[in-house]
Design brief:
Elements: H1 3-19, H2 27-34, H3 38-45, H4 48-71, H5 77-93, H6 96-103, H7 125-131, H8 137-152, H9 159-181, H10 187-202
Helix pairs in contact: 1-2, 2-3, 4-5, 4-6, 4-7, 4-8, 5-9, 5-10, 8-9, 9-10
Length: 203
């Protein structure tokens, strides 16, 4: 199956989830919306659980890609970490599935696949990856922190400077995730002010 068709199926499942609880999402409807047969859908994902795992994997991957884009923005360390925190809050605001991935709080409306790997007999590489371990909120926080350190640390930085940078990156990500879990008034600017203030005190 072409990657574009897989994406169309994931888009169809994501759109269906926005309209009804996961328990009421039917595979036949997902396939019809994507313009493929139900058998094609099962060939790609194996089961509804496999589709759910692929959706969660896509949200996690999309989140990390967005964090990397924010970290690549122009500006100093504080500005780029603030941009990453703001993006985290904005991305999760209207996306219940991403909020659950980031916070670990799964409502009854959402799929809630186990984070541990499941047996996979899929011939589809992307599905074998989705059937592998799914990231916990702590895994994602560590991944963004590590990407931030790599993006913001100078090649010749001293070990003490890198440790301080790692601490600042983790602080920014933790503040962002706390604002996802319990959004402050005006969440976008709220998280930006929190991160700027915290990093100012760090500096």
């Amino acid at each position: 199956m072409m990657p574009a068709a897989r994406e169309s199926l994931l888009d169809a499942a994501f759109a269906a989830l926005a309209r009804r609880p996961w328990s009421a999402v039917r595979m036949v409807d997902v396939a019809a919306t994507a313009g493929v047969s139900r058998q094609t859908l099962y060939n790609e994902f194996g089961s509804k659980e496999g589709l759910a795992r692929a959706l969660v994997r896509r949200e996690a991957d999309g989140y990390l890609a967005g964090a990397e884009r924010a970290l690549a923005a122009p500006g100093d360390v504080r500005e780029r970490l603030t941009a990453t925190a703001r993006w985290t809050v904005c991305a999760a605001r209207d996306n219940a599935l991403l909020r659950a991935v980031l916070t670990g709080c799964w409502s009854e409306r959402l799929p809630s696949p186990t984070l541990s790997a499941v047996p996979s007999s899929s011939a589809v590489p992307a599905q074998r990856r989705a059937d592998g371990p799914l990231p916990s909120p702590g895994d994602l926080m560590a991944a963004v922190r590590d990407r931030a350190v790599a993006a913001l640390g100078g090649s010749g930085a001293a070990r003490a400077d890198m440790a301080e940078l790692s601490h600042s990156c983790e602080l920014a990500v933790r503040l962002a995730l706390s604002c996802v879990a319990a959004p402050p008034p005006g969440a976008d600017e709220g998280v930006a002010e929190l991160v700027r203030g915290a990093l100012q005190r760090q500096g």
